[in-house]
UniProtKB/TrEMBL annotation:
Annotated ABM domain residues: 18-73
Any Pfam family hit: ABM
Protein name in the entry: Heme-degrading monooxygenase HmoA
Example of a GO MF term: monooxygenase activity
Species annotation: Sphingomonas palmae
Length: 104
């Protein structure tokens, strides 16, 4: 499963956002069924984070995690102007890279 979080940052409380984001990245990686994450953010505050889960139950359990719920609530009130969330089933996935560390 892919949980696609598309968000527009408010620019408020940059240190608080950075700390919360790092904590959530670490916590998500410790959850059963977590398969990985990709993220990108522009200088304008627009960003996309995709987390990958073994199944829908794992993704739902992550959403229900109490620490994640607290940070989501703070995000809506402080760090984000708006967001969209999409959940999709991944039917195929592959990649290619010249060598480790060469992606720009």
């Amino acid at each position: 499963m892919a949980v696609i979080f598309v968000a527009w940052r408010s620019g408020a409380d940059q240190p608080g956002y950075a700390a919360a984001a790092a904590a959530m990245d670490t916590l998500a990686a410790q959850q059963p069924g977590f398969c990985g994450m990709d993220a990108a953010r522009g200088n304008d505050g627009f960003g996309i984070t995709v987390s990958y889960w073994a199944d829908e139950a794992s993704a739902v359990a992550w959403r229900a995690h109490p620490d994640h719920a607290k940070v989501r609530e703070a995000g809506g009130g402080r760090w984000y102007v708006g967001y969209d969330l999409h959940v999709a089933q991944v039917t195929r996935s592959y990649g290619w890279s010249r060598e480790e560390g060469e992606r720009i």
